UniProtKB/TrEMBL annotation:
Family classification: Belongs to the leucine-binding protein family.
Residue intervals of the Leucine-binding protein domain: 37-375
Protein name: Branched-chain amino acid ABC transporter substrate-binding protein
This protein's UniProt keywords: Amino-acid transport, Signal, Transport
């Protein structure tokens, strides 16, 4: 074994051991007892997207507690085991191996597509059903893993929605697209480019930036010269907020908008209220814009003393759907759960009824458009 391979193995084992000792793990044991069903939760709880992981974890815990308080699933309580993937492919691989080794019957979570893609292969090889409640890269279902199900629409569908909004609603023709070279963002950028051209628009700039940098002046100056009618950022809110701020400072023409990876109020805080005004967001439904979710929001605020995030409601619903599938399967056998999930028809969620296609994606897209007004997201 080469030195770099030994180092990689050591890091993976070290990460798995550290994760196994995490205080977040319910009951702290490595496997479910006879009266438990062990469910893994994979989200980022460190790194720049840690807030999203916290939001998702809270929602999954909340749904689990409610299910357990009602007697669990056929008398068995759900036990959660958490693993941090840090939105990083290598960390995600270690997290997936950890959860598989602990004998989880299913896994839920997944925020970054770049972390979801490598870890989903590990779950596929182990036959573990996977409920993806945030990551939406079209590359995820393209892998052909029958164990993987997405409760948000894919980047292909998001691209169509973004192109339609920029070209038809805003009346633009010249579109600029900016990404950060991560799997999700680059994939969304590429499919948006195709969708814009398909719908009769012109992509005048297709740029990539390093999200670790803080100054995007050089790229934005070149972009300004192209005089775009609309600019679409496909990556995450940390760099997205700075991009919007500098976009406005330099006076680049046209509207600026972001994909669902940037759907968080932190985006507005980073950009500043004035710079963020009229910025648009293409996203899956969020709890605050769903009338039926009011009770859920109130309970969430009371329980966690914080506002629900953009993927809180869908993660809550995802846990409910997973529990429903286990109940319908009549067993915690992994293959039986996968079959039950594939047979899901019209499961009621805050975002609408969920039914899956044969590739594990939603039968119907659920993307909506938000716009920033007076420092707040409003629905278009």
């Amino acid at each position: 074994m080469k030195s770099w391979q030994k180092l990689g193995l050591a890091l993976t084992l070290s990460s798995a051991l550290l994760s196994a000792c995490s205080p977040e793990a319910v009951n702290n044991s490595s496997g479910g007892g006879s009266g438990e069903i062990l469910i893994g939760v994979q989200t980022p709880t460190t790194g720049s997207s840690a807030k999203m992981g916290e939001d998702m974890n809270n929602a999954i815990k909340m749904a689990t507690e409610e299910i357990n308080e009602k007697g669990g699933i056929d008398g068995k309580k759900i036990k959660l085991e958490f693993a941090d993937d840090a939105c990083d492919p290598q960390t995600a691989t270690a997290a997936a191996n950890k959860l598989v080794s602990q004998g989880v019957k299913a896994v839920i979570g997944f925020y970054c597509s770049g972390a979801t893609l490598p870890s989903s292969g590990i779950y596929h090889n182990a036959g573990v059903p996977v409920m993806v409640t945030a990551a939406s890269s079209a590359k995820i279902p393209a892998q052909g893993y029958k164990e993987v199900f997405l409760t948000t629409a894919t980047t292909d569908q998001q691209s169509e929605a973004a192109a339609e909004y920029m070209l038809k609603t805003l009346g633009g023709k010249r579109v600029a697209i900016v990404h950060d070279n991560t799997a999700f963002a680059k994939g969304l950028a590429e499919t948006t480019q195709t969708a814009v051209q398909k719908q009769g628009g012109q992509v005048v700039a297709f740029e990539a930036i390093n999200p670790e940098e803080k100054d995007f002046t050089a790229m934005l100056t070149q972009l300004k010269a192209q005089k775009p009618d609309a600019t679409f950022w496909t990556a995450y809110y940390a760099a997205g907020g700075l991009l919007i701020k500098q976009f406005e400072q330099l006076g680049v023409s046209g509207a600026i908008g972001v994909g669902d990876g940037s759907n968080d109020k932190t985006l507005i805080e980073i950009a500043g209220k004035e710079a963020a005004e009229d910025a648009f967001v293409i996203t899956s439904p969020t709890a605050e814009f769903i009338p039926e979710a009011k009770s859920f929001i109130d309970t969430y605020k009371s329980k966690f003393n914080m506002e629900p995030g953009p993927y809180t409601a869908v993660s809550y619903d995802g846990m409910r759907l997973l529990a429903d599938a286990i109940k319908r399967a009549g067993s915690d056998d992994k293959a039986a759960i996968v079959k039950a999930l594939s047979e899901t028809k019209s499961f009621k969620t805050f975002g609408g009824d969920v039914s899956f296609k044969s590739d594990g994606t939603l039968e119907k897209s659920n993307f909506i458009v938000l716009k920033v007004k007076n420092g707040q997201f409003t629905r278009e």
